[in-house]
Specification:
Blueprint lengths: L18 H12 L3 H18 L18 E2 L15 E2 L4
Antiparallel strand pairs: 1-2
Length: about 90
């Protein structure tokens, strides 16, 4: 939801833009105290829900079938395929 991350440069596919949200996001990214950061995250969540840039209709489920020789192929909450850490163990 951070406006500088608007697609295609980032994962803000809604192109949501709110100066207050951006300011709180930047503050949260710099906050080292976990409890204070959680308070900021809750404010961000409330702001996003009040503005309602998206409506979640369903959550998809992803299954990956991977050969045993493929290592470090993980998953993430937004189902982006990240191959930077993937390696293949060659058979001799």
């Amino acid at each position: 939801m951070y406006s500088p991350n608007a697609a295609p440069k980032g994962p803000n596919y809604t192109h949501f833009k709110n100066e207050n949200f951006d300011r709180l996001y930047e503050k949260a990214m710099q906050e080292v105290d976990e409890n204070k950061r959680i308070v900021l995250y809750r404010q961000l969540d409330s702001l996003a829900m009040a503005e309602a840039p998206v409506i979640v209709l369903f959550y998809d489920e992803v299954l990956r079938f991977v050969q045993k020789n493929v290592n470090n192929l993980g998953s993430n909450p937004i189902n982006l395929l990240d191959l930077r850490e993937v390696s293949i163990q060659r058979k001799n």
